[in-house]
Design a protein that fits this description.
It contains 12 helices and 12 strands. It has 337 residues and is of the alpha/beta class. It has a 7-stranded parallel β-sheet, sandwiched between helices. Strands 4-3-2-1-5 form a 5-stranded antiparallel β-sheet, with no helix packed on it. The longest helix has 19 residues.
Length: 337
């Protein structure tokens, strides 16, 4: 009987599959090339009517009108398809862009049983990209079927657009304006977050006492919080946001990704609150203790532009050089008058 390794393409039951890692040595875990993660199955090759064999594909038909651009497009599509199935990250073939090397670092948090991550990179480095990579990877692995992004109201449409264009994730924008329209066709027992698996939610809309409690009950297993530093203050509006995030963080199985370019604004209490969302033990703020910093490092990613532009990442051209100059404005006679 032929043996297959994870990533091999095989033919079984009249269709093509890709082999996935299997806990049973004699069984094959297969996902159809044209199917979703939920279509994966386990089969015993010994019990199959027809033997499981390596997949074979006929060469493409090339007509007289075929062009070099068409051939290159076909080649690129094939490479991307193979890359999705056999690469270290399944999300690689579903992206609408080429991520930079440093943007893959937050994916290391997927080694944790539950992703609790604070991404505090500088402005412009790509925190949205990094959070989207985590979401896309969890979806493609079949570990989650729902997620919610919480952000300030002026960023809701931007988040929805980025998820669609860069990650092929169709999300629904939930704001004070859109929520009533989205809720019209729901049954009594159904919540908005049950009906729409991928949502981008306005923090100002969801933070009220009534909505906060209902959202906590129907909250997806993954939550991304943008501008997280704006949720840990002590005045009225921020207090409501912090109570919302605290209730979500109480579920130890919930994945939580916090994004902020200013994790520490000089307010020690706010910073301790922010770290406490990752793990209640981090709320002590004992940063002077080495063991504390080692544990926190598994959940904390922070890079400045100076950390990225260098030999280690090979990203010397990531950010344009800032050149400033002065130029006098010549005034004509009318302006001088």
């Amino acid at each position: 009987m032929e043996r297959f390794a994870p990533g091999d393409l095989v033919h079984a039951r009249g269709r093509e599959w890709i082999a996935l890692p299997s806990a049973e040595a004699d069984w094959l875990c297969l996902r159809p090339l044209s199917g979703a993660e939920s279509d994966a199955l386990l089969l015993d090759p010994v019990l199959e009517r027809e033997p499981v064999r390596p997949a074979r594909f006929d060469p493409p038909e090339v007509s007289d009108t075929a062009t070099q651009d068409g051939a290159r497009l076909l080649s690129d599509a094939l490479h991307l398809s193979m890359r999705r199935g056999a690469g270290p990250f399944r999300a690689a073939g579903r992206l609408g862009f080429e991520p930079r090397a440093y943007q893959l670092v937050p994916l290391l948090s997927l080694r944790l049983p539950t992703v609790r991550l604070l991404v505090a990179d500088d402005v412009g480095i790509g925190k949205t990209i990094e959070a989207g990579l985590v979401l896309r990877e969890l979806v493609d692995r079949g570990e989650i079927e729902r997620f919610a992004v919480l952000c300030p109201p002026h960023l809701v449409e931007q988040w929805s657009g980025e998820l669609k264009s860069k990650f092929d994730l169709d999300s629904v924008a939930v704001t004070a304006t859109s929520a009533p329209r989205l809720e019209r066709g729901l049954t009594i027992s159904q919540t908005l977050f049950d009906a729409y698996p991928f949502t981008v939610v306005s923090l100002d809309y969801i933070k009220s006492d009534r909505r906060r409690e209902s959202f906590a009950r129907a909250c997806p297993p993954v939550v991304v919080v943008d501008e997280a530093h704006a949720c840990v203050g002590t005045h009225r509006g921020r207090q409501q946001r912090f109570e919302l995030l605290s209730s979500l963080a109480e579920d130890a199985s919930r994945h939580l990704v916090l994004l902020t370019a200013t994790p520490h604004s000089g307010d020690e209490q706010a910073f301790d609150r922010l770290l406490g969302l990752l793990d209640p033990s981090f709320a002590s703020g004992a940063l002077e203790e080495e063991n504390f910093r080692i544990r926190l490092a598994r959940h904390f990613v922070q890079r400045r532009r100076a950390d990225i532009v260098g030999r280690d990442w090979g990203e010397d051209r990531v950010f344009p050089r800032h050149d400033s100059t002065e130029k006098s404005y010549p005034l004509d006679a009318k302006h001088r008058a």
